[in-house]
Amino acid sequence: MPIRYFLYFLLISNLSFSQKLSFIYETKFRYNSEKPNDYYEKNMLLEIDNNQSIFRDLDDKKIDSLQINNGRGMTKLGVENNYYVKKDFQSDSVDKIITYLGVNYLLPIDEKLQWIIKPEKTKLGKYAVQKAETKYGGRDWAAWFTTDLAFNDGPYIFHGLPGLIVSIQDSKNDFYFNLIQVKKYEDLFDARTKTVKIDWKKYESLAKSYYNDPYDLLSKAGRKVTMTGPNGNVLDINEVAKEVQNDILQENNPIELNHKINYK
């Protein structure tokens, strides 16, 4: 990298991270590789403050707000398909946070992104963008970044380009992240600072524990599980558990394909 380019990038990075901005990304995920037209859609939020950022879905931010203001949060079921990511740009660390049975597990993302900036340029919305490519999680990714928003960040774990990532998708068209809104905010709050560090092996173990017996695990955590149907009839917890297991098996297309879990 030429010295003048490095100094310019350092300057705009320091300037950008002094601003408190949030970026809303429209996301689309194809969780079942055998259903090419079946996408799950959700809006997710990237908030940047100083030299750190948090990427989470809007429901996760509401849960964090409840935790901070009331000391109470809500329990989200499941381990896979969580997209809560913290980045620290001073330490160059990227961590996924998986909250399971009231415990926040910290999974470091050690796979480094090696970007190749391509010559292609275009315009997405009001932003002039340029193409870049990388590999992550056993997938090939194509991103479009803009120096109009001089943040070297982006959705999920993606970062490290000389401008904000406006859009990124994998080559199989399974996962999309597209910027749809930019706005200011006052403070970046984080309710998930107390964590237990894990690796991918432990992550798989947690996912299998949930798959094997999700509702008994909740009972062991001190919560009695009672389920009723639309007509008020009591449901067989074992049958409900089988439905959950089937849903997990159907979601056979994780974003990190190189860490795909074999539940059988």
Structural class: alpha+beta
User: What is the average of the pLDDT values?
Assistant: 85
Order of helices and strands: HEEEHEEEEEEEEEHHH
Q: Between the first and last Cα atoms, what is the distance in angstroms?
A: 48 Å
Strand content bin: 25-35%
Low-pLDDT runs of 5+ residues are 1-17
Total number of helices: 5
Strands of the largest sheet, in order across it?
7-8-9-10-11-1-2-3-4-5-6-12
Tally of DSSP β-strands: 12
Radius of gyration: 20 Å
At a glance:
The chain is 23% helix and 34% strand. The protein is α+β, with helices and mostly antiparallel strands. A 12-stranded mixed sheet has the order 7-8-9-10-11-1-2-3-4-5-6-12.
Structure commentary:
It is a single chain. The protein is α+β, with helices and mostly antiparallel strands and 264 residues long. The protein contains five helices and twelve strands. It has helices spanning 3-16, 58-70, 200-212, 214-220, 237-250; strands at residues 21-29, 40-49, 52-57, 85-88, 93-100, 103-108, 116-124, 127-136, 139-146, 164-170, 175-184, 196-197. It has a twelve-stranded mixed β-sheet with strand order 7-8-9-10-11-1-2-3-4-5-6-12. The longest helix has 14 residues, at 3-16. The chain is globular and about 60 Å long. It starts with a helix and ends in a 14-residue tail after the last helix. Mean pLDDT is 85; it is low at 1-17.
